[in-house]
Amino acid sequence: MGNGTDAGFAEALSGYARRWPDEAATVALFHALLADAENPFRRERLAGHFTASCWLVSRNGARVLLTHHRKLGLWLQLGGHADGERDLAAAALREAEEESGLPGLHIEPEIFDLDRHWIPEHKGVPAHWHYDVRFVVRAGWEEAYRVSAESLDLAWRGIAELAEDAAADASVRRMAGKWLAR
Length: 182
Description:
This protein has about 180 residues and is of the alpha+beta class. It is about 30% helix and about 30% strand. It is built from five helices and six strands; from the N terminus they run ααβββαβββαα. It has a six-stranded mixed β-sheet, with helices on both faces. The radius of gyration is 15 Å and the shape is globular. The chain starts with 5 loop residues before the first helix and ends with a helix.
């Protein structure tokens, strides 16, 4: 995925489908969007577009850094728009750095999770689909984060606890389960 080519992304999606066969229908939606003639990496494509997120884990792998999302009011993984960047791993790492302020982050290039979700209308931007491609990002020695303007707050959460937390976002619980099953 790290080379930013559409062919590389398509292969990464196919590899994800092989690892998670129960998610084949979701992967098919991502393949279809990638094949669309209108650039699906730009947020202006209101029929839906790719976004990039990260499962930012602590150095010991027991905790994940979540954001209290300013627009959605939910505790979610860090991430955002690709803004034309076709290398979604690079976009996810950029978002992790910008939103957490943490130095020394390292990204794993393999797709960790895919999630297609509906974004409600906000400040004149019509409701639309996000096709979120998620990567594991590992923290370095420093875990003292800085809250950016995009977040109401950030917090380290135990991954095992999140997997069992019925109040947590369903996709966050799914990622916690995938992490624990590694």
